[in-house]
Amino acid sequence: MNNTKSKQPFIVLEALDAGGSQTQTDLLCARLKKEGYTPHQYHFPQEDRATGRIIYDKFLLNKNKYPFSQREQVLLFIQDYFSKSEELWNVVSPPARGGAGGGGSGEVLVSDRFASSAMAYQTIGLMGKARKKMLDWITWLCYKGTPALPKPDIVLFLDTPVAVSLQRLAKKKKDFFETKEKLTAIRNSYIKLAKEQKWAVFNSVDEKGEQRTREELHEEIWQKVQQVL
Length: 229
What we know:
This protein has helices at residues 21-34, 50-60, 70-82, 85-92, 115-121, 128-143, 162-169, 180-197, 214-225, and strands at residues 10-15, 38-43, 107-112, 154-159, 200-203. By secondary structure, it is α/β, with parallel strands linked by helices. The protein starts with 9 loop residues before the first strand and ends with a helix.
């Protein structure tokens, strides 16, 4: 454990719906605790808060019946992130923010999805200058000026084939984005962002197309995570 860091690590996991990010977030937090760290685990959108429920109930599960533009969708998600801003900053507690010292030695912030999700989802269908403009706007809203959210030290992307995602979603109520066409576009968007922003990418299937075990994926993720602890 590195006890000399002035800022506590912030780790984000991203994946398609049913892509395994929740499972791997759970496994990672359990591993961190076992290794002597204090993980602070989050999931967005928040299913138990009004700022998250409005996303699920009036947009995702409502199939965008009363259409939200891409910018309006971004704002829905960002207000959910900012509802936890103070808590998040209290964990990472960087001196530049005048933190109250909430983040102590060995504390680690781990989130299943964050602003990187908004960047991936809300740039589907956009190209060139329009895509760059949207990404710049999201970055400005989230990370520049005041108020701002803490920026992750590392983003871990679990790359899951669309067919696997759909198979796992087969018995669940699907939301606005959970169609083959949309999931394909979202996966392509994630892959492009991962390359541009230098995320760590983990394949959820092997070379033969067989699904890898959660334990195997976790061990690979753990090796990467140790680089930021």
